[in-house]
Amino acid sequence: MSSSSGSTAAATPILKEEVDIVIPTIRNLDFLGMWRPFFEGYHLIIVQDGDPSKVIKVPEGFDYELYNRNDINRVLGPRAHCISFKDSACRCFGFLLSKKKYIFTIDDDCFVAKDPSGKEINALEQHLKNLLSPSTPFFFNTLYDPYREGTDFVRGYPFSLREGVPTAASHGLWLNIPDYDAPTQLVKPLERNNRYVDAVMTIPKGTLFPMCGMNLAFNRELIGPAMYFGLMGEGQPIGRYDDMWAGWCVKVISDHLGLGVKTGLPYIWHSKASNPFVNLKKEYKGIYWQEELIPFFQSVSFPKECTTAQKCYIELSKQVKAKLGKVDEYFNKLADAMVTWIEAWDELNLSGVKSEALSNGPAK
């Protein structure tokens, strides 16, 4: 794969006034050079994790805001504890601040991938295509996404369901380093994903999936309040389950609200594998707890009064406390943080008044 962006003509930005790109990072963002043809013209929200005194360098020519932990504390005040520290879940702060309809979030070790013909993949454009076309969660189409060019609904697909439902989230995949947990990393240290599958599919209603946050887009207006990556990282007994948690919450809420979630294209190139021994330390409670978490989410139901993502999320927090609190005290803390997250969301998004702290912009 090429690391040069010079050979690619700049893409014409689509919906550039309706999209924010959110990037969590602890390092200089040299990787943006490769994405320049696809990201220039869009607004970036960069959330710096770790030491806020460290200077993060961003290549010239990008329209961006850079926020660090001092900004999180300044904007959210006593609610700042709901944003994780020293974990990629800090990206949620960018979701809170955005006022755009669509969010694309990508990790800083993800580069531009190429399709089998050698053409560089415009991941953002494909995500927007996914989000702008309907989903079909209630009946599976064996030719996958029937709204893509060159395909349609197959014989036997009910005509009453062919209109589809709005798409809340688009989950992209990765070439090179697979998104494996630590035990799988340890037994398959050299495994690489070289399979490019030219497909997009709607995840059926009632089916959960492991959501990876490194190549993800969503409709913020439809599902943004449920895109909370939980309490992870420093001071917490678990890490690397932030996107998993958000994915399970998003899926059960989307199912209830009649929304769809797609997975498949676009691919990005995941450049480096994290240390499996470090990962195991972060993950081991999650690996143990998930055997109770999955049945919990499979049994979640919402009353008909839950008509918005916010209402669903508050109801879900109550069920987390009632049913998972006995698994570990951590889940009581998490349930409280879920409520705090919605309070922060409502304050920054529903009041119609930009807070004074936010109006001042990122700390200099």
UniProtKB/TrEMBL annotation:
GO biological process: cell wall organization; plant-type cell wall organization or biogenesis; UDP-L-arabinose metabolic process
EC number: 5.4.99.30
Pfam families in the record: RGP (PF03214)
Localization terms from the record: Golgi apparatus
Glycosylation sites: 155
InterPro entries linked: Nucleotide-diphossugar_trans, RGP, RGP_fam
Keyword Cell wall biogenesis/degradation appears in the UniProt entry: yes
GO MF term set: glycosyltransferase activity; UDP-arabinopyranose mutase activity
Broad class of the protein's primary localization: Golgi
GO terms for cellular component: cytosol; Golgi apparatus
Site (Required for activity): 155, 162
Catalytic activity as recorded in UniProt: UDP-beta-L-arabinofuranose = UDP-beta-L-arabinopyranose
Record key words, sorted: Cell wall biogenesis/degradation, Glycoprotein, Glycosyltransferase, Golgi apparatus, Isomerase, Transferase
Family to which the UniProt record says this protein belongs: Belongs to the RGP family.
PANTHER family associated with the record: ALPHA-1,4-GLUCAN-PROTEIN SYNTHASE (PTHR31682:SF5), UDP-ARABINOSE MUTASE (PTHR31682)
Role, per record: Probable UDP-L-arabinose mutase involved in the biosynthesis of cell wall non-cellulosic polysaccharides.
Protein name per the record: UDP-arabinopyranose mutase
Lineage of the species this protein comes from: Eukaryota, Viridiplantae, Streptophyta, Embryophyta, Tracheophyta
